[in-house]
Structure formats: C-alpha cells, structure tokens
Amino acid sequence: MDHRRRWASWFWLAWLVLFTACSTGPAAQPVAPSPIEEPETVEAEPTAAPATEVITDSAALALETDHGLLINLTTDDTWSANMALNLATTARNQGLDPVVVFLNVRGVYLADRERMPATEGNSDLTIHEKIQALVDAGGQVIACPSCSEEAGLTQADYLDGVVIGEPGEIVPLLANSAITVISYPGPNRTE
C-alpha cells in the first residue's frame, strides 16, 4: 500500500472516530425516574383542513414556472452530456422556465454539427437529438463565445437552435436566486 492510500485510510478512520464521538454526545448520566403523568384528554373540534394526498402522476408534479435551471456543461464527455441534457429536458417538461444549458470549455464540441453524434446509456437518441429535443421543449442552449472562438467554431457550425452567447450573458442567471445552477464538469481522468 503506498503512502497516499495509507494516508487516506488513516484520514477516513480518524473521520469515522470523530463522527462517532460527536454523534453519540457526552457520556450518559443516570437520571432519576420521573413520575408518569397521564396526559389530559381533550376532544378536538372537527376542522375543515384539507386531507393530505400523495401525488404520483408526473403531470401533477409539474413545477411552477417561477423557477429556472442553468446547467453548466464543460465537457464533451457523452455520459456527462447525456445526464445534463436529460435533466434539462425533464426540468423543462415539468415547467421550469428558463432552462438553459451553457456549453463551455470542451462542451462546445457537443453541438458541432460536423462531429459524429454519439449515443450514451440506454437511450436511442444521439447527443445531437437530445439537444434538439431540449430546444423543441423550449429550453435554450448557449455556447460560450470565447470557448467557441478557441475551438474554431462559428454560429454556422452549430446545430439549429444552439446560439453563441454574448460575453457576460449568463451572469444575470447566475445572480438570480430563482435559478438553480448545476455543473457537469466531466470525468476526472488521471493518465
């Protein structure tokens, strides 16, 4: 076992000991038994409170449109892209608005019409088809302008519905408390 693994093992062991010590609290002190008192019985008056029901229909779970989603997709890894695009399309179909996928760094390559569109997971749709499905559902796909330039991509290179953003265009979305931001950075590969 090399020193990094040994250090990691000691770290997790120390964390476990600390967590266990903190969660059990101080040593228990004996407590004198207290007399048991019978609670006073009070009859409740009937109220008109609505019954609680469990909603199982996904259409009934549609969210209000006062909340949006920004997905930061920084990789051309198809597994990460598949997850991000599925989440974005599902969120849009459930009523979130706006739903924006921001392609930056290597993520801009996902929308390049000249690239071979890959499939991922148990879907029959390619990444290009998933981007189109999101756009068709009313979502937005914005490519980072400086990343597009660095990759040598222009608006003509992108799939229909994908737009090159303006510098700083997503900053208002980042600052909006009604927008949830999720980032898909791709796999951490060490070679």
Amount of beta strand: 5-15%
Principal-axes shape call: globular
Query: How would you spell out the order of helices and strands?
Result: HEHEHEHEHE
Overall pLDDT confidence = 77
Tell me the strand order in the biggest sheet.
Answer: 4-3-2-1-5
What is the helix content?
A: 25-40%
Structural class: alpha/beta
Write down the CATH topology of the domain at 68-184.
Hypothetical Protein Ychn, Chain: A
Total beta strand runs: 5
What can be said about the biggest beta sheet? 5 strands, parallel
Discrete helix count: 5
Rg from alpha-carbon coordinates: 26 Å
Q: Which stretches are low in confidence, meaning pLDDT under 50 for 5 or more residues running?
A: 1-31, 47-64
CATH class assignment of the domain at 68-184:
Alpha Beta
Distance between the termini: 20 Å
Describe the protein in words.
- The chain has helices at 3-24, 78-93, 127-136, 145-151, 171-175, and strands at residues 68-73, 99-103, 140-143, 162-164, 179-184.
- It is of the alpha/beta class and 191 residues long.
- The chain has a domain at 68-184: DsrEFH-like (Hypothetical Protein Ychn, Chain: A).
- Strands 4-3-2-1-5 form a 5-stranded parallel sheet.
- It is globular and about 35 Å long.
Task: Describe the structure concisely.
This protein has helices at residues 3-24, 78-93, 127-136, 145-151, 171-175; strands spanning 68-73, 99-103, 140-143, 162-164, 179-184. The chain has 191 residues and is α/β, with parallel strands linked by helices.
